[in-house]
Queue: 2 jobs
Job 1
Amino acid sequence: MKTDRLRIGWICILGCLSLTSALGQNRNTPQVRFKDGVYLTLQQLQTNQPGYSWKQLRGNWFRNPESGVVTVVELIAAENAALSPESLWGVCVDGKPAVRIDADSINRSSVVFYPLTITGAISYFSYEGILRDTVEMAAYNPESGLPFRKGKVQRSRQEPRERLLLWQTGEILPFTRENLLRWTDNDPEIRRAISVLQEGEPNFREQLLRAIVVYNQRNPLPVVK
């Protein structure tokens, strides 16, 4: 009983912190207004200094206005040098950064960048990945109903994937409570609030996302211009 009261208490604290620290703030709004363009490295994004602004580039790229996903087919710099989309760490459109996802992870021929829907010391993004596995298939004799041939077939299917990005190092990990605990050691209050959340509870995922927003408010990014 005491443990349950303690757990409920920390959940309430997390809710109160969310209201006081993130009231009126959309979690899709970055703490910093990032400069539009392409970022060749994480360090360029950390210092808000893109390798190229979009005005310095021409080519074939587009942004989905609903999802914010940016697809890059070809880019050419002002000096007529081709810029490989695979060499980019990320891009930024309308002040919102997006991170590159390997094409073989999403079954696309073009290079795709998925927006950070939470931007801060701990950032969050999601995308539809491709899960590949091998299944055994059998061909059946229509008369006897018995299998006469068996073989293994590769199968691909879409799988939603949620990821955390540690701003300081660029490390990317799955979106789990355990990984959030690992990255919030410097904020004991938030860490305790996260530790009492239990998977399977109502709003478990939303509580974790709320914890990220509050953590980022309490541990803001360095001011970059």
Job 2
Amino acid sequence: MSCNTDATVLLDSSLQAIPANSKSVFKRLCYINDASNFKELSDLSNYIIVGTLQDDAKQKLYYADSKIEYQALYGVTVSSFRIYKVFKGNLKEGETIKIAETYFTQENNGDMIQYLMDYGPSEPNREYVFFLNKEDDKNEFLEGYFSPSIREKGRYPVLNKPLFEEVTSQDIQDLKLVSVTENEYLSLLKEVRAFLNVH
């Protein structure tokens, strides 16, 4: 796996509007942690919550050089998340937090390009289970935001179907997964649904 390590200087910390009508480009980043089952996922997450992602996404971008502000090297999309239920962590039901997801959209040579940094976009106004960690002051770029603990493995749709019904690739086709295989994700999704059923 190759790593994108050039995004080292933060020059623009503001949240920006997201351009529309984009093509997608996938970029792979370096990560130390991974999870192959629910216990590992839970152990690597400080928060487990259920709620709805609001339709208010903005993006925050890293630039390499102030003279080349047209091309960001890294970015996140930040959305509000309204919490319905808390399973782990010191958050409260009814609270709204900011979640930073690792994708962004930018114009490049007249095209709108969506850069997927090991993460496909979430759908606004949809209910999700998120496994999160909160960024601390060591990460100036993401300080104060919550982020999925293990990329796409930190986000699961709440499905409107009984637990006894098998989850299939049809249930996740709109997630546009980019960093995890469908079978691996479905296996974790089944464990997440089982967890929700007993809590």
